[in-house]
Fold each of these.
Amino acid sequence: MRVGIVGAGISGLAAARDLQQRGAKVVVFEKSRGPGGRCSTRRSNGFVWDTGATSIAPRGKAIERLMLNELPTDELIPVEKPIYLHRNLIPEAGDPSRTVPRYTYRNGMNTLPKLLADGIDMRPEVEIERISRAGEGYRIGGMHFDAIILTAPIPQTAALLWTLDESRPIASARYRSNLCIALGYDTPLPETPYFAILDPTQVHPMTWMSIESVKAPERAPAVVVQMSRQYSFDHYADSPNELIVDISRYVEALFGATYRVPAAADVMKWKYAQPDTTADFETVNPPGSRLIIAGDGVSAGRLEEAFDSGLRASQLLC
Ligand SMILES: Cc1cc2nc3c(=O)[nH]c(=O)nc-3n(C[C@H](O)[C@H](O)[C@H](O)COP(=O)(O)OP(=O)(O)OC[C@H]3O[C@@H](n4cnc5c(N)ncnc54)[C@H](O)[C@@H]3O)c2cc1C
């Protein structure tokens, strides 16, 4: 069986590996330069920032076995410190019973998709704009496939479905946008009992800040800040410089004036960051489908769930 997969994020790569192990011929099309999607790492001037998924808490799901037992583990490290909650930038310990084992990769979370992509026929910098039917199968570009798996965020998948004049019950999957600001410093950051702080109420403009150099101690002093739903909506069009200056205020408020001006910075604008609500995998993909929709829009906005959706897609086909 020949399977074309749109998207080399965690779900597309999970499907690709599983299908390949079951004997299928797989081609993964990816519009970016490399694999990973929202499991992304930016690097600049010696700083390493995870600007998508910060870490992975596999919660006993299939990806845990793979990460711990099958993929190389030399870069894999447990995140030792917990996530604290913050109210108006005052951090306090959360409920320790809710703390789950969490991992990251020393040199960036996108080590995980790079490892998953090893041995996969991936075509980078190929944005699929149209899929057509060809007999019992499908055609992408000049290539014929017996089946297709779509793994982009649901609004992007919907655009591809239109080109096929195909509809699926996916309207319940809705994503929030997120502004994510990466800041690096010349001076080591103060010691903290946490690796990240979170305002789950989204009242404060800064919902999340992870300290990259606490999460992975070999990294240079750096933080990644994710802004609230409201802030991200209101400031989406702001320039990177405006965002960096504005958001540096919060780091200064936490750590002092030394951190008012970062030595390096980067801004990520995630239009489809994570789903607030999802569609149901089984309803979207009825038995016998040769066009499968996977990804976090039909599971949940976390890596281990996206991975599982890719496995489910593969198992529907083989
Ligand atoms: C800021 C942020 C923080 C997060 N933090 C965490 C966390 O700490 N822990 C956690 O578990 N999860 C976290 N998540 C969620 C997690 O990153 C996602 O749920 C997961 O990566 C989704 O994987 P996916 O394969 O479903 O989609 P994606 O990663 O989006 O992969 C889809 C791929 O399809 C490609 N694509 C799209 N359209 C096309 C096209 N037409 N042609 C070709 N290629 C196309 C895209 O470039 C992309 O690579 C976070 C997400 C964000 C944005």
Amino acid sequence: MSTTPLTRSAPTAFGSARLLAGVTHGTRADLSTHRRLHGPQRHRTLEELAADAARVQLLGRGGAAFPVATKLAAVPPGRRTQVVVNGSESEPASRKDRTLMTLTPHLVLDGALAVARALRTSHVTIAVHDQAAASSLHAALQERALAEPSPELVRVERRPARFVAGEIRAVLRGLDGGPAVPPSRRTLPSEAGLHGAPTFASNVETFAQIALLVSLGPAEYAAVGSPEEPGTTLLTLLGDTRAQGVVEVPTDLPLDALVPGTSGPVLLGGYHGRWVEDVVGLSVTRPALRAGGLALNAGVVARLPREACALAEVTAVTRWLAAQSAGQCGPCLFGTAALARDVDDLLHGRTAPEVDARLAGLVRRGACAHPDGTVAFVTSALDVLTDELATHRRHGTCGRPYAGVLPLGERSVR
Ligand code: SF4
């Protein structure tokens, strides 16, 4: 096994590691290690792959949790068809896709090549903004060129780290030489994606899950996890949680196994997610969370420690979200900035009489999900942080410091 250390904490598995098999010590799995752990690459036809994905009810592991079988069935196979692995993990709170690309690049490549072969195409593009992830993928491709040469053309393309640049339509537009912002016209990638060709696009973990599904077969794949969404999933844990960083968990794991006790609000789904008062009775199963109006999105779970000012954390992220607007839709550009000023007023004990109208005015007012995601984040925070808001209104502060538990990427906005 090669021994490329990660500078951040090594990932952890609750239960048996599958995606993270062999890498929970933070060392990268080279090709021989990967083959020992996961076996040789197996071929599935498009019909077989879609049937297997339907049998295990595999959902995409980016934001939308779209059924993989439905997406596979929507893409016409052929030589023009494109496969795009979206590794633009541009939410600073999430590290799961970077972890996969850095530590288990061959699992990601197996998944991408399984899809490409099923779709009878040789065009695979991996969009990535992280240098360590890109280097690991390049090294993995070199290993394969020597040991397992294949006809597929796999390109690793660097993309900007900006938040909305990671949205799949922005990724495709940027790969085609345009600005890395979502286009105003809503066209499905399966119809006209990269280079205008039919495109199967999904995020990194989805491709790694496809590789596992092909390697294990649907019965073994579904031997763990929830009946509604079998298997395991990756999360990034932050703050006052049982582990820190990237964890692999079975999909039926109760969330209070990761966020024990009931003290302090919990953010589910990252900066386009929602705050909840506690996680009692919730599991990580995406369909069950969706039924309750919640989403895992890119798998971020954060609980603020008691000694941190929660309202300061929310204010910092709201300002950051406003700064991430791509600036092409007026309601988004001006509305998110005004909303950030409102939240800042509340932090400093001032009133913000227009905040509710501001939130309502942002709903479904952009070319992408950024305004709606920002509204979900702020609305749920104001619903959950009623005690903190009252304290700040009375005293102008709660006396607790801003701790910076929720990361803001390379650009600080404070
Ligand atoms: S809604 Fe905002 S982030 Fe999305 S495309 Fe429009 S300006 Fe850009």
Amino acid sequence: MRSITFLLCLLLVSQAVTADVIAVVGTGRVGGALGTEFAAQGHTVVYGSRNPTTEAVRELVARTGNGATAKFQAQAVEGADIVVLAVPGMLAGDITRNLGDLSGKIIIDPTNPLNFTAEGVSHGVPTSNGEIIQAAAPDAFVVKAFNVLSWEYMIDPESSGGPISIPLAGNDDGAKARVAAIVKSLDLHPIDLGPIDHSRWIEGMAILLIHNNFTPLPAFNFHLRELQ
Ligand SMILES: NC(=O)c1ccc[n+]([C@@H]2O[C@H](COP(=O)([O-])OP(=O)(O)OC[C@H]3O[C@@H](n4cnc5c(N)ncnc54)[C@H](OP(=O)(O)O)[C@@H]3O)[C@@H](O)[C@H]2O)c1
């Protein structure tokens, strides 16, 4: 039943993809990749940065175009419909709390709580960042998305050699459908994997992907792909 609601919402939303104001908090690799792609789809991007006037941020704003701007993090989210938290995973809960009132906004969460150890990388929180962010902003609609995809493929998914599915998790079907429509507009394929606590498994996928990069084991890549 939940899946049917999601599909109905997706159908409605994908027929009317609106130009949203999207606050992208964090101006690093993921923030820069998603921000430029969102602007290319007609959305207005407001970057949230600790230092919005640096040369690097000004260059990103210019490259993003379509009326993009940069502000301090809490100011950037004020007028936004959608907030993307492209920030260090172990700080995501604290950063969310510092953003002020996020009631009614959709929060896209691409973060991974990475705990770097001598043995490699492990999942650094007892639950998941999806749940931690939802608890930090209880009246917002958190949707886990994009956390298992390297930033290079956010810009150029075709270079992966085939379709890529983006796992989504969240408690609100309407919010997931809006994020799914955005995912589709980037030539990626959304898959609804259930409520926000399923972020635990989706974040686990990212740990598997990243861990070997910090060990002598061979590095590898994988993508989720829906059965046809
Ligand atoms: N790299 C990937 O391919 C990839 C793929 C999927 C998911 N992810 C996840 O996405 C998130 C961002 O990754 P990334 O590679 O984009 O990281 P990144 O390049 O290090 O960028 C993170 C940005 O967050 C902001 N930031 C840094 N420290 C902060 C602090 N103490 N408080 C508030 N903001 C801070 C900075 O922007 P300002 O300097 O402008 O404030 C920084 O540029 C991580 O959780 C990561 O696990 C990464």
